[in-house]
Amino acid sequence: MKYLNLIILSLLSSITFAQNKPYTVNDGYCFIQNKNREAKEWKVVWQDDFNNAKLDTNKWTKISPNKADWGNYMTSDPICYDFEDGRILLKGIVNPDTTKDKRPYLTGGIWSKGKFAFQYGKIEIHAKLESAKGAWPAMWMLAEQKKYGAYPRNGEIDIMEHLNFENIIYQTTHSYYTLDLGKKHNPMHHGTSKIDTKKYNTFGLAWYPDKLVFSLNGVDTFTYPRIEGVDKSQWPYDQPFFILIDQQLGGSWVGDVKDKDLPVNMIVDWVKVYQ
Predict the structure, then answer these.
(1) Where are the domains of the chain?
(2) Which CATH number is correct for 23-274, 3.40.50.10240, 2.60.120.200, 3.40.50.150, 2.60.120.10?
(3) Which of 41, 130, 161, 166 is flagged as catalytic?
(4) What is d(CA 78, CA 60) in angstroms, rounded to the nearest whole number?
(5) Among candidates 204, 205, 207, 171, which has minimal Cα distance to 189?
(6) Angle at the Cα of 115 (from 113 to 117), degrees rounded to 5?
(7) Is 161 a catalytic site residue?
(8) What are 15-71's pLDDT values in tens digits?
(9) What is the pTM (predicted TM-score) of this model?
(10) Catalytic site residue from 84, 144, 156, 166
């Protein structure tokens, strides 16, 4: 009887724990926040503290080169990744061997595509940004399943972008509505915030069914709301998104790279997702 009672208690505990989870998991890795949780306390559902001296490949993949402006110099080469004191360093460097790879620069970046995505909740990334001419560190999100078709119809959420030696960050949304239809002011699709790049900062986004609330060091900085009476492409943010964190170099927005400023690092302390 004693053992039977223990088994029953264990089963009841498991059921209670499952019921208390703030999410359901689709496809094994897409965390969908349960309905009506907006007024409840956030719970950490996924995180990485980078305490191991290697990348956790159950959570992340190194970003390969691609044809997008931001992806010109992405590489999986270990030379652009380092681990120090429980932090990952994503590096932008002058390519030391152009006989093996002809590109002049190499950059490191990671994404959670195919391994973790979430719909609604909050994400915070604690990191330090180094500066250089042509440096373009970014923390952002893209749709995992492409519910509405090809880019930009599924939207893009830029939690943080930083350019060169500026003392501000950019926090932005992109979509078919803002890019193809040019609707960048109804509602305003981006904001900026002052930043001290000499310090670690916490870059955040709280994502609700009706708004995106960007933050810096726990202070709300910019809100992008879902609005009525406009083209439905204004709100593609009703599907799971994955995370990208990358130290980019060069491009039409940030401008040319100055070699003598390199190497440059984005030093990431931790990433936490709440629901």
Answers:
(1) 23-274
(2) 2.60.120.200
(3) 161
(4) 14
(5) 171
(6) 70
(7) yes
(8) 333 458 999 999 999 999 999 887 789 999 999 999 999 999 999 999 999 999 999
(9) 0.93
(10) 156
